[in-house]
Amino acid sequence: MSELYYDRTKVVQYARKWAFGRNPAYYDFSKIGGDCTNFASQCIYAGAGVMNFTPVFGWFYRTAQDRTASWTGVEFLYRFLTENDGAGPYAKEVPLAELEIGDVVQLGRATGDFYHTPVVVGFSRGEILVAAHSYDAFNKPLSSYSFARVRGIHILGVRE
């Protein structure tokens, strides 16, 4: 399995283009649970260029009905990225200080469940700036969100 380049610039370009709109190639899940992880997956895909078509446990989107839970589900995306040893992007959980543009953050409740997946698109004066869907945003300071828990997910690379 060959290693591919994860293009962080393409992640930010995609996020900038679609943060306040919807790419017609993807279903908008805003009214049925939220679109944040769908948008995060689209951004990651823009930088990775490879999906993992393993049924159930992979990471892909063909249609709203033909996709994996990891494409649109917060916990499922985390599990895919941090446990993936096949095709597509793979990652590890890191402290926020180790994040780069093109990585993702997940926000959680005190009870332990995570509910939101913004994409890191920049940094300013020590602040992490993110893009997101559901509550559409671009260059929004992470500190402006209200959350009890947070985890950073650093994309390590992509496998073909």
Explain the overall architecture.
By secondary structure, the protein is an alpha+beta fold. It has a single domain (3-159), classed as endopeptidase fold (from Nostoc punctiforme) (Alpha-Beta Complex), CATH 3.90.1720. The protein is built from 4 helices and 8 strands, in the order E-H-H-H-H-E-E-E-E-E-E-E. Strands 1, 2, 3, 4 and 8 form a 5-stranded antiparallel beta sheet that branches. A 3-stranded antiparallel beta sheet has the order 5-6-7. The termini are close together.
Essential attributes:
single chain; 160 residues; alpha+beta; endopeptidase fold (from Nostoc punctiforme); 5-stranded antiparallel sheet; 3-stranded antiparallel sheet; 4 helices; 8 strands
Overall structural class, as computed from helix and strand content, comes to alpha+beta
| Count of alpha and pi helical runs | 4
Number of strands: 8
Q: What percent of the residues sit in helical stretches (DSSP H or I)? A: 10-25%
Largest sheet: 5 strands, antiparallel
- Name the CATH architecture: Alpha-Beta Complex
Return the CATH topology. endopeptidase fold (from Nostoc punctiforme)
String of helices and strands: EHHHHEEEEEEE
Average pLDDT reading: 97
pLDDT below 50 for ≥5 consecutive residues: which ranges? Answer: none
The end-to-end span amounts to: 6 Å
Radius of gyration: 14 Å
Portion of residues in beta strands equals: 25-35%
Total domain modules: 1
Overall geometry? globular
